[in-house]
Amino acid sequence: MNAAVRAVVRMGIYVGAKVYFIHEGYQGMVDGGDNIEEASWESVSSMLQVGGTVIGSARCKEFRSHEGRLKAAHQLVKRGITNLCVIGGDGSLTGANLFREEWSGLLEELVQQSLIDEEAAQNNSELHIVGMVGSIDNDFCGTDMTIGTDSALHRIIEVVDAIMTTAQSHQRTFVLEVMGRHCGYLALVSALACGADWVLIPEMPPEDGWEEHMCQKLSENRADKKRLNIIIVAEGAIDCHNKPITSNHIKELVVSCLGFDTRVTILGHVQRGGTPSAFDRILASRMGVEAVLALLEASDSTPACVVSLCGNQAVRLPLMECVQMTQDVQKSMDEKNFEEAVRLRGRSFENNLNTYKLLSYHKADSELPNSSFNVAVLNVGAPAAGMNAAVRSAVRVGITEGHKMFAVNDGFEGFYKGQIKEIKWGDVAGWTGQGGSILGTKRTLPAKHLDKIAEQIRIHNINALLVIGGFEAFECLLQLYEARTSHEDFCIPMCMLPATISNNVPGTDLSIGADTSLNAIVETCDRIKQSASGTKRRVFIIETMGGYCGYLASVGGLAAGADTVYIYEEPFNIRDLQSNVEHLTEKMKTGIQRGLVLRNENSNENFTTDFICQLYSEEGKGVFDCRKNVLGHMQQGGAPSPFDRNFGTKIAAKAIQWISRKLKESYKDGKVFANTEDTACLLGMRRRTMAFQPVVQLKDETDFAHRIPKEQWWLKLHPLMKILAKYKTSYDVSDSGQLEPVTRIRPKKAD
User: Fold this and answer.
1) What pLDDT score was predicted for residue 225?
2) Is 333 annotated as a binding residue?
3) Is 738 labelled a binding residue?
4) Which is catalytic among the residues 31, 34, 117, 137?
5) pLDDT confidence of 164, banded at 50, 70, 90?
6) Which residues does the annotation say bind ATP (predicted)?
7) 415 near 446, Cβ under 8 Å?
8) 137 a catalytic residue
9) CB under 8 A, 24+ apart: contacts of 576-583
10) Is 545 annotated for ligand binding?
11) What architecture is the 364-512+641-704 domain classified under in CATH?
């Protein structure tokens, strides 16, 4: 929430508005006085890294009454405030909308009671409202992610990872209760992210007899040498008769039925606390800026809107339609119409649920379809967190689809040397939380070893390839596609999943591993800022990885609250460096006496990190001193973030389903033959959708010399960072959302 407050204040000041804090939520609006104070640029400094909300929040009974709202209107009119930005859950937003609907009536009453004059009523005749959804449950319809959800997932996954190490040593069963009274999002996604054995959520109550089913699954897992069982329960979990299922009930069940040593852990308010994740800071900063733009464009005739995220795009949706839909979910659940509830929750929730169902249940071999196809999985390029989650997901979905799955060690180098073996369901247990690449990964390209690779494809009778990796993986797929003319063995379906911390692969907005890396950068920047504010008047220059791609520096800078970012995509010269130094000199005169500058490793071959540090030291003499820090390979390591685990899991599942379809289409006369463009694809996220794109068509979109896409969406976020760091710049609003209706996914008619 603090990142959102900071963005609204700074963007508001930037566009020339007067911005006020209202402390303690609606209570502060009703009470007025010191609760409503004008905000300054400096007053939102250093709050990006703080959890909770600095301006306070409170449940307010008074605002629910007409008298309370009358008092609140009076307080706003006194200060001439006619635009409200409300950050909260559906309750807060519904309240704001009611307040807006009553506004003109409230003003009339205030005039009648002689509390304000006619002129004041006329000057403040319209109240505009824009909402941002802050809720860790992610229970608001119309938005893929609410502010705070990703951070809550970070807390849950930290705990699960810690519990896994102890549970594995003791052969214990753990029942974890996570928040979500009415919404199972946190439970579902954390179950996906840690590979839990069983999950219970309000939207999908288990069928009668689930107790035996669950115990049977737990004992099968034990028999498979899996020493640990994890069951995740949402606090609002129910059975199909709307009776609550508690974590203690599950514990008693497991103990009485199986006699396993079972412990319950209730996470409680841990999930609300802690430092916000990089994803949440970027989401909230984007939403905050979008909210200010929406208020500027609002008129009497536009409905109150919420700004939210759809895929990777900021959108504006009518507030009451979203609230209505959110309430419809609860209604559907009360009426036991659970399928409808899941559909109303939106496509992101539905995808998560379907993926979980695919991965969770290991059918006996006799139940599986027998496809007689062999699919090989390999990692290429540099390691990225989340690769293992993708491999696990691919292997398990492949087995469920009836394929034989093969793992290739050490990329194409291992491929031509014949390091290929079958990989089974149990072999990938516990892989989601592991960083790096368990299969091993190399940058070797196939071009020089085509004959040997073709030979291995024949030996193992490989019918399809799934390549998980970065820019090299893209080049590999292109080379194999182009080698189809000379080697018929490469005429098989091939799919690539983007996995690289640099996020420099064409055809996708996001890559597996980039989120984990951003979190590592942001965490370090937070610590460095703390050190700098202790020393006073110190500027830190931090070098990030990314090759020529400025994604990590630019988006990391936005999340860490950097003053300047140097990237290759935006050329800079000595005059720019000079104006940056002057900008920091001005800043040192205020109360914020520290600076943070990020530089991408290849942003400029002559203006190196050392050079910039020396330049700043010389030019800043007597005003500030300068230190540098090269982050290096710590950006590649670490346990994958919840986002990367899930992104990897979901896209790998989707890729294997695509491979199955292509195998069926290209199987003729007892063999697979696929030589069309659309059988060598990259699966990427483009704005709102996941799309399979032929690699050969992505060739024109790529700058091969610098290993980056020619057009990159995140460059639109770059000016945002500058605005929030007090630079005058032009902000491209062409990308800002237009108000659009909420799309309700209608049930698919039975074919």
Assistant:
1) 67
2) no
3) no
4) 137
5) confident
6) 59-60, 89-92
7) yes
8) yes
9) 577/607, 577/612, 577/615, 578/619, 581/615, 581/616, 581/619, 581/620, 583/726, 583/727
10) yes
11) 3-Layer(aba) Sandwich (3.40)
